[in-house]
Write a structure and sequence with these properties.
Nucleotidyltransferase, domain 5, alpha/beta, 5-stranded mixed β-sheet, 20 helices, DHBP synthase, globular, 622 residues, 3 domains
Length: 622
């Protein structure tokens, strides 16, 4: 039984293949097209999912789309009617797109599938099904989880009508008991502050989360008193006088700016103290809402386990707060919690919910470490690198690990490409940039000279799971980088940098109050210790990723530190690399020192100088 799940046409389109209930392949379209958040039909991802297992569309039993366009169109029309005559400009822009394509999505999907399938390959398309948006999210959270039964919470911007859903999963059944509907949305509240602080909606929310520790939540109560009414059980309503997303072309209204005395920041302009305080304030409110929802859900269901999905579930700071608060004994979060993960949920909802097939929870979970994307054989890697103009040295696996660990210990930055590409927004050691976390300069160097992004952005540590509790105040594995926890007291500390490592802002700069925190060295692993002494942790086990675990072990053997900086192998505005050629181009377009692609070692100084093009990147899609 093969089921192909699809998400597409809004943002982060993806395909996932479920075979007899097991997730065997999944990938986002952006990785193949190199267009970040690509919303188009995932032709390349579909091809990969089927061809990589030797299959074809003729061998697929069902194709399931991750939401229901007719219900979404109903919400659109009802919203415009309720707000009329406001929003006519927005209405006039939206309706032609719906009437041309989105309203008749079944026909569009069938046409897209026929275009993908080779001529004459199939006489009839597989059965085409549609699941509701939050069913897809909840199915992606519960069915791959290790739990026989669990409470399920999904939170995002908006699906059809629902923005928040509370449900219960047992065995192969999944039922949603309560929903909060549009326009009341925790995801859209967070996106409104993303917009106000000058970041791109639907892609810059994680920047807002990273900015929050630089500020103080001085406007938390202002938000609770004026913008969002939160009940003790976590249910909430938004005061629409402060927003413009229902019918306008902006996220916030003029009244929003007046409330805080802060106009919308233009992209790339200076980040000021008030922007950091806005970030800190909405982050504090988000944590409060999620905590109340979790406590209420635990009390109502009496279940010890919680599953999370939806875009808000990528807020790893809030996730860490829920874990520490303790309403649930165990938490499992879908690593591809956003719309891309809806493809997984749609396929699993069909297999277990629609078809009623029994389910046996897998350990540690059913996501295979998120390593569900393409991989490349050693001979193919060498050929492709050579064709791209690379000069590489092929080494035995044992030697490549030892050389890489030594280079990292020597302060070199390494592009690391190994095994199957990750599914979801996080690089988890297969398409990663690695570095030594003990060096104070690493964070700034990686941000400004390699990732070409804002200097305030934090980096995540990857740590051997057996060393987790010595270095971080976390007692459960975090294989998907979805939990934030403090660095242990033993590895904290604060002392001034050398003067040449301070930011180039004067003491009286408007930004100095917040970003001057970057000029402090925080303990033994400053490159991954955020300004509030927290870290977004990825644990690595020998079972889930043996090669990465062995690299960490060898780095520890050389340095005494079982932690490495792990950030996604890409530059700002570009998707994570997929192929060896992508990795080589990124290597040559940045100031990365070393590239390791499977067993091929590339040193920057050995490469053809004519191929170097550092800093030449298009950031328009970031």
């Amino acid at each position: 039984m093969r089921i192909l799940g699809l998400s597409a046409f809004y943002h982060d389109s993806a395909a996932a293949l479920v075979e007899d209930g097991r997730i065997v392949r999944a990938a986002q379209e952006e990785r193949f097209t190199r267009r970040k958040h690509d919303p188009r039909f995932p032709h390349n991802a579909v091809s990969y999912c089927l061809e990589d297992v030797g299959g074809s569309l003729a061998q697929v039993d069902y194709v399931t789309f991750y939401d229901k366009p007719f219900i979404k169109f109903e919400r659109l029309i009802e919203t415009y009617l309720a707000m009329a005559p406001r929003g006519f400009t927005s209405f006039r822009a939206a309706i032609p797109v719906w009437l041309k394509e989105k309203l008749f999505l079944k026909r569009l999907l069938q046409r897209s599938l026929r275009e993908w399938a080779p001529s004459g390959q199939i006489k009839a398309l597989p059965s085409l099904l549609f699941t509701e948006h939050h069913i897809s999210h909840q199915a992606s959270a519960f069915y791959p989880s290790p739990f026989e039964e669990a409470a399920v919470l999904s939170l995002d911007g908006v699906g059809e009508w629902a923005t928040t859903a509370c449900g219960v999963g047992r065995g192969n059944t999944l039922e949603i008991h309560k929903e909060i509907h549009f326009p009341h949305s925790l995801g859209l509240l967070y996106s409104a502050f993303t917009y106000q602080t000058g970041f791109r909606v639907n892609s810059g929310e994680y920047k807002l989360m990273g900015l929050a520790p630089y500020g103080t939540p001085r406007w938390k109560q202002t938000i609770l008193d004026n913008i969002i009414d939160v009940k003790p059980d976590g249910s909430f309503r938004l005061n629409q006088e402060y927003f413009d997303y229902c019918t306008g072309l902006r996220m916030t209204s003029d009244r929003f700016s007046e409330l805080f005395g802060v106009p919308p920041r233009s992209a790339e302009s200076e980040l000021r103290t008030e922007h950091m305080d806005l970030a800190a304030s909405v982050q504090a409110v988000t944590e409060e809402v999620v905590l109340r929802l979790a406590r209420s859900l635990a009390k109502e269901t009496g279940l010890p386990n919680l599953c999370l999905a939806g875009g808000v579930a990528l807020n790893c700071v809030a996730n860490g707060e829920v874990l520490r608060d303790g309403p649930f004994e165990r938490i499992w979060i879908q690593p591809a919690a956003g719309d891309a993960g809806g493809a997984v949920g749609a396929a699993l909802a069909t297999y277990h919910g629609f078809l009623g097939t029994p389910r046996s929870p897998q350990q540690p979970d059913g996501m295979s470490g998120c390593y569900l994307g393409p991989d490349f054989e050693p001979d193919e890697v060498r050929r492709r690198l050579t064709d791209a103009g690379a000069r590489s040295l092929t080494l035995p696996p044992d030697e490549i690990l030892d050389r890489t660990a030594a280079l990292l210990a020597d302060g070199r930055s390494v592009g690391w490409f190994h095994g199957r590409m990750e599914f979801g927004p996080r690089a988890l050691g297969h398409r990663s940039i690695l570095a030594d976390p003990r060096r104070p300069e690493t964070q700034r160097t990686l941000n400004l000279q390699i990732k070409y992004r804002e200097s305030f952005r934090p980096f995540a540590p990857m740590v051997m799971v057996e060393d987790l509790e010595e270095w971080f105040e976390l007692s459960v594995p975090s294989p998907y980088m979805l939990l934030v926890a403090p660095v242990t007291e033993a590895h904290r500390g604060a002392r001034e940098h050398d003067s040449d490592r301070h930011l180039s802002t004067s003491a009286d700069s408007p930004a100095a109050e917040g970003l001057e925190k970057l000029a402090l060295v925080r303990g033994d692993i400053p490159a991954v210790t955020h300004v509030d002494y927290s870290a977004r942790i990825q644990t690595v086990s020998v079972d889930q990723s043996p090669r990465v675990h062995e690299l960490l072990r060898r780095f520890k053997e050389k340095t005494g530190c079982p932690v490495l900086v792990n950030t996604s192998f890409n530059v700002r505005g570009e998707p994570i690399v997929c192929t060896p050629e992508d990795a080589f181009r990124c290597f040559m377009g940045t100031e990365l020192d070393v590239l390791v692609v499977e067993n091929c070692l590339l040193m920057k100084e050995d490469q053809d100088p004519s191929l170097l093009h550092p800093g030449e990147h298009d950031f328009a899609l970031d």
